[in-house]
């Protein structure tokens, strides 16, 4: 007895999203149930005229009040004038092959209405990403690919179920963006400077989004779609290696993602002048970063940061220990008694990294305070609340990027070697990153950094990690 043939489960006349997902579409209008459930735009392709149905000789024109469904089903064949070549314009060149597919319109819709407004959350700057950057992308395909890649990652983040298809789409658009970016960086002009800068900016957020918890959530065939670690798509499948605690620690404490972020700054120096006077100038405004006086900082937070210097300078005078930190174990001479005597180059590298970290914390606190003031103004319906934050402090989400760009190469080399002092500094950078835990692209980063450092160092260093552990919720 032959087997019963299974019913066809795929959609033939359904929406674009269901066809892309290769699932049966319920064809509900205006949005099918699948798109409503996954919270994605529902787009139906144009209806095709049915063929092979003979027209009745007695068929009469429909009255003016016919419904839309009978209008389409009543058409038996296209009118002759539509099939005639006379309708074509011979003097108009054909369109070039399309760069984007129908599903990319879904990503563009996501970018415009949601993703672009969720990256920074700063009055004026988020609208700049939504409108100005998008307008620039219409003239530079690689920037459009960069925006679509981030939109795909954002959609995957919003979906509670693993979306390997979206992660793969993100990786493909990211590849296209990087290829176009590489072709432009050797020929930066005022005409493409803003597009090159914007692509680099989006790549930074992409690196954070794909190296962090996003990779853990989507642990299927496309889980390895992080920069320089793409899965082998040649066979249309593959399996990702389980992201164990050891592999996560190695990924977080690697210099690969830091190099990706720092490398962008080096190639963008020729574009800096044009960007500072262009439509995206507010995105590179450093505000009053250089005006922060470290000698005037008297917070408990800065006191704990200054204490770190005793790790690589155990001979530091006890009188320089902040009184507010006397209760913490690392402030005692015993805690630093086992510290090795470092070379002058090492001390200079650690000192510079610490100075930038103290400045970053101070700037973050000022930015958060300004953000709270703006929110209070909005609640009071104050028109001043719509002003751009660039008039004072740049958006808080730029703070960790600034630190990663400014720390000296000597510090990163010792970080790569897993030197304890370098790791302790990095754990405090994790505490700084934790202030951005409310952003979807940086969710969990601060905790993972502190946890990775804590797992890598022995119990001797536990007192030095007590404060960052408490900040990220590990203690």
Automatic annotation (TrEMBL):
The lineage of its organism: Eukaryota, Fungi, Dikarya, Ascomycota, Pezizomycotina. Residues 14-44 form the Zn(2)-C6 fungal-type domain. PANTHER family: STEROL UPTAKE CONTROL PROTEIN 2. It holds the Pfam family Zn_clus. InterPro entries: Fun_TF, Sterol_Uptake_Regulator, Zn2-C6_fun-type_DNA-bd_sf, Zn2Cys6_DnaBD. GO terms for molecular function: DNA-binding transcription activator activity, RNA polymerase II-specific; zinc ion binding. It comes from the Eukaryota. Residues 51-71, 372-391 are annotated as: Disordered. The keyword Transmembrane applies. This is Zn(2)-C6 fungal-type domain-containing protein. The chain crosses the membrane at residues 136-158. Keywords: Membrane, Nucleus, Transmembrane, Transmembrane helix.
